[in-house]
Design goal:
Layout lengths: L8 E7 L17 E5 L2 H11 L28 E7 L7 E2 L14
Antiparallel strand pairs: 1-2, 1-3, 2-4
């Protein structure tokens, strides 16, 4: 017997830190993002996976090095997650478009 499939919900990731927070220097705010995910933690992963990554562009910090773990969406001090609809139908993923522009920053 298989266990029941987890239920998807809609979550909104909302920038929570002030614009002057130094953490935005490395991970710029992308505004409010809505995702369909299994949990608040999964919502952060879904949003981070939708971002532009070093592996998606020609400029790489090193072979096989991803920037997904450095996403602002994973930082609880920068983004808060709110559940907006429980038990939604649909597929796991981003509901509101995340612009695919060069948002990768570094100190310097």
């Amino acid at each position: 017997m298989s266990s029941p499939k987890p239920e998807l919900s809609l979550y909104r990731l909302i920038p929570d830190a002030p614009a002057t927070d130094p953490n935005w220097d490395l991970a710029p705010s992308q505004g409010i993002v809505t995702v369909c995910a299994y949990s608040p933690a999964d919502a952060r992963i879904v949003a981070a996976e939708a971002e532009l990554d070093f592996l998606d562009i020609a400029a790489k910090p090193g072979d096989g090095t991803s920037t997904k773990m450095a996403s602002a969406f994973r930082d609880e001090k920068l983004y808060r997650v709110e559940e907006i609809e429980q038990g939604t139908s649909g597929e796991r993923g981003v509901v509101q478009h995340i612009p695919q522009e060069d948002l990768i920053r570094g100190k310097g």
